[in-house]
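Forwarding the complex inputs:
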Amino acid sequence: KNEVEQSPQNLTAQEGEFITINCSYSVGISALHWLQQHPGGGIVSLFMLSSGKKKHGRLIATINIQEKHSSLHITASHPRDSAVYICAVRSNDYKLSFGAGTTVTVRA
Amino acid sequence: KAGVTQTPRYLIKTRGQQVTLSCSPISGHRSVSWYQQTPGQGLQFLFEYFSETQRNKGNFPGRFSGRQFSNSRSEMNVSTLELGDSALYLCASSFTSGILNEQFFGPGTRLTVL
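Prediction (whole assembly, two chains):
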């Protein structure tokens, strides 16, 4: 069983819709990261979280350490948000594990 | 400021050969990390170098090695290539040490092993 589970695997939304991607993990962590990968491979680091909530533009990331769960929300989604979103956790022994990714498609 | 550059962008090798991939970090960045991405395994961390020293290492066999030069440029080497080594190899750089901490990713090198 993967230490990091993401859901859903694929998601299609209409432009303007609110999108939520979930990430659950099974180990104690020192930090959780959300990454965005566009077609062609380029990866952008969106957030690093160890507690609470962070917001950047239309993106919001939250983490609940007790429940070992994080969510990435995209408000007012736009076609340019179409990408693969990857959750990664750094465990307390500094091991890094990645989720399988969520493919988001936003239709105009 | 130029981004992270990786060379070559595409590479085709045959089983048993060895390959060297290069990564030039953003100017001023001293940390370089390497990742492997495959359709089956997803993203996996290979290793991180900071100021010419390997700081962290993922769970990969000894065929995978790397090094960092005094100008922070990094190379990774894979010896005795196997079909399963076909992947996108990504390099990322940051000013301070720390996997994924404020890292900027390069475009990747697509390696195909035949």
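The two ends of chain B are 37 Å apart (CA to CA).
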